[in-house]
Specification:
156 residues, alpha+beta, 2 domains, four-stranded antiparallel sheet, 3 helices, 6 strands
Amino acid sequence: MHVGFSFPRPPLLARRLSSLTTFFAQAHQILNLLLLSLSSSLQLPPTTSLTNLHRSDAPSLDILRLLHYVAQPPSETGAPQAPHTDLGSLTLLFAKSPGFQVMPPNGTKWKFVVPTTGCAIVNIGDGMSRQGPGFLPRTIDIFVFSPHYPCLCNES
């Protein structure tokens, strides 16, 4: 993982930096496999492969966000975030709790995406949707607490 600068970290992250670094490297390997497959499907020449834009050994605009949504009592409604698209190329979402929803392209109703143990949900972000004329539509998503599923968000 390329680190171009150092910054103060919260103690919780500092204590787990080794595990997080390993996780990031493994997530990057998964993304590279997806990017290679997309590059092949789009018939991109090796010199313009999508993996060249997401190298771990070079500075990039890649970001990582670690989000934790606190459980809400069933009597409360609301979403901890507004509907949005992701800024990057691809997003890997590792979720334990149901509540992730997507709006299908040209859709009018939100669809729940129920997490599967050991799997990641992959979103197409703004950066990837701009690589071609609508070939890969970006994902509009939101996280809401589902009244139909128990929330596992408070697990340690």
